[in-house]
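cron nightly-structures :: item 1 of 1
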Amino acid sequence: MDALTWVIVAAFYAPLHYLVPLLITAFRSSDRERTARLRRTAIDCTLSMFVGFVLVIWLAQDRLQLAMSILFVSMLVPYARLLRAGEAKAGS
């Protein structure tokens, strides 16, 4: 796959990857802590998207199905911190 194809994939993937975790964070945090939590969530999304795309581009030459599975799983990674934060908040 050429670079233009990956740019198009990333352009469609990024809103799905960022939107829901940021919305969940915005709605579940108080005004006082919202900015810091949104920043952490955006960093989580960026890191998981970067790592996911590096793996996918590397694997796509030979194992496209595995590469797309990794891309899907990397979309779920930001939710792990959101769930941990929710459990910690419920426990306190």
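cron nightly-structures :: done
Residues 64-91 form the longest helix (28 residues).
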